[in-house]
Amino acid sequence: MGDLPDFDTLLAMHRDNPESLEKLRRRLTRKILRSAPDSTRQRLEGLQFRIDMELQRASNPTARCIRLSGMMHDSFSRLNHCLQHPFDEVNARQNRPKADILPMIQRHQRTDSSKPH
After folding, report:
1. By CB neighbour count within 10 A (0-12 exposed, 13-18 middle, 19+ buried), where does 115 fall?
2. Which own/partner pairs from 46-54 qualify as long-range (CB within 8 Å, at least 24 positions apart)?
3. Is the distance from CB of 13 to CB of 4 less than 8 angstroms?
């Protein structure tokens, strides 16, 4: 990835101009998302949205790191469970409750029997 500066430059950006470092992160992230295959782009964009929301919720760089680390650990834990118990995931997906679609009725709709005489 030729657009990524060396470590010392990134460290200086972090110390002296964190806004420019954040702009670089967003620009490189957009570049990666644009280059992703269509089949995975939407999922990656959804993941990036979740990451961005976690970063916004964090009050300082340490909290940001902890939040993202927690997301990674949760993901690895789910992956490990799937690898150790592959049929659990298959069964869970097959047994998910299906939604019932209910017809819409007007709230103030009257039937013939409810009409005033």
Report:
1. exposed
2. none
3. no
What CA–CA distance (Å, rounded) separates 9 from 15? 10
| Cα atoms found within 13 Å of the Cα of residue 80, Cβ hemisphere only | 6
How far apart (Å, rounded) are the C-alpha atoms in residues 73 and 79?
Answer: 10
Q: How far is CA 100 from CA 38, 93, 96, 97, 103, in A?
A: 31, 17, 13, 9, 10
Structure tokens at 92: 């869970």
For residue 81, give both structure tokens. 């469970």
Burial class (CB within 10 angstroms; exposed 0-12, middle 13-18, buried 19+) of 13 = middle
* pLDDT value at residue 101: 73
pLDDT in tens, 26-50: 999 999 999 999 999 999 999 999 9
